[in-house]
Amino acid sequence: MTVAALLLLAASAPNDDGLSASTNEGGDSVVISDSERADWNPAESGPPPSPPPRDINDPNCYDDPDPMRVCRDDYHVTAPVTARDIAAFTPDRPAAASEPRTWAIVRTPANFVGDASRHVETGELLDQPAEVRFEPAAYYWSYGDGTERTTRAGGATWDALDRPDFSETPTSHEYARSGTYTVRLVVEYSAEYRVAGAGWVPVIGTVRSAAPPLQLRVASVDTVLVDRDCRENPRGPGC
Description:
3 helices, mainly beta, 14 strands
């Protein structure tokens, strides 16, 4: 074997890191293949040459179905999607209601119900057709008298709970004084997204939406009259 052949074999043999490298005629530059760029150690061998730019839509840029992948130096990077990224997707506005409607009695439970549900909004995310699915995660109540409460569910009517009117519920509140109060509800949504029909991926962070405020008049009473006595209507006020 000639000296030239031995030098050629030595120049193309793998180095200690298992990388296949070659030298040019001047012996002062090193080139590694695209598939080996992820293992390149610039501290030991110097920086590799930059690859030509590649379009994100080039199917050779990635080998998985997630269009949110971006191509960078021939390896894949997935940037997490945050609540800020889905600002163009607005969740449905929740609603709030009270029992009795618009009024309450001092030191007697008034029941409040928040209406919000899981739903999907469509649009574009990073120039790709996308869907965002919102799920109610928390309900923040402000009853207008300085009292606040956080619940995991929006509550339900007395009938739905099979409880007598003016009974305590997980979302009810009693007012100590008469007056007019503004009740506010803010719903916090968690979110997931998917692009081009792929699987759902969690969004980092949450999105909040406020319901229209309620005006509630609270009054003091000595007696409560009903159209029937408590034997005929055991669910009536005062029974």
